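Encode chain A's predicted structure.
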Amino acid sequence: MSMIDDSARVEIRRGLRVAALFFIGLLGGASMMPLDAGVYARGAVIVSGKRQAVQNRDGGIVTALRAVEGQKVARGQVLLEIASADLHALERGMTAELMMLFAQRERLLAERDRRAVMAEPVEFRALPAADRVLAEDALRGQRLLLAARLRTAQTEKAVWMRRAHANAEQIGGFGEQIAANRRQRALLDDELTGMRVIAAKGFASINRIRALERTQAALDGEHGALGAQILQTRDAIGEAELSAAGVDRRQIEEVEGSLRDLLVRMNELQPKLLAAREQLARSMVRAPVAGTIVGPTIYTIGGVVSPGQTLMEIVPDRRALVIEVQVSPDDADDMRPGQTTQVRFTGFHDRAMPALDARIDT
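Encoded structure for chain A:
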């Protein structure tokens, strides 16, 4: 009986050795055999296409934040503002000056053309609200100035014309004096003739004749003085009339010079204002595309932004969702574009999510 048991145990051991060798060989062969049944890889859901980086060329100090992480934004929507108070004040100052120059130009043209009403500049017809306020202030001031300058010119001309009229009246008075002197001289001549006849007969004093002759000479001298005064007064009238006409001439010359200076200043100012507005527009950072804000790097007002710094990114709307996976190079030969595959979402542990069919893109 013992010999039989020993023989059975020997056979069992031999069978176990053979089975062990079989399984070892099977596992070894399986490890060297490629599994064409499938390739497994982990991945993540992403948006198709690149995110749009939001940057600012000039940089500066953040003065306003208008978008936060996860916010939906439209194309062109202001996301944040990067503008210094100095730049804004500079732009407003130059705008106010330009509005004043436009209004001043129309006022000068009205003065040159002898118009009491100045036209509104064509540049004022389509202004934004902020600029319209500046334009109206400039127009109001220049219209008041135009009225004042016209009154001043009219007053100055009236003064000169009054002087001319006064001198003309003086000439009239001088003429009356001359006429009176002539009548007095005629009477004196008659009296002197009579006195000389009487004196020749010895009935009149020679002193009386000499007195009449002195009076006659005085009248002649007064007549000459009145004639000279008339000439001087006529010269004064001519000067007054010339001065009255010179008011308009000087005003036109002044207006022409002011217009030249004004155009030079406008040509200098407009490019500077355009550059300031372009820089100010760049400081209003806008969304390049419609989408969702992700990855902001600026969180506080007053933060400093470097030129070209990425301020945030936008995930564009209406883009397809794809699954980005990384596979081993050893499995690359088993995959090709257009090949079908299956996707399982392992994050939903408490739900029985079915496998989804998908297609390999690249």
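The helical segments are 2-32, 85-112, 129-200, 206-283.
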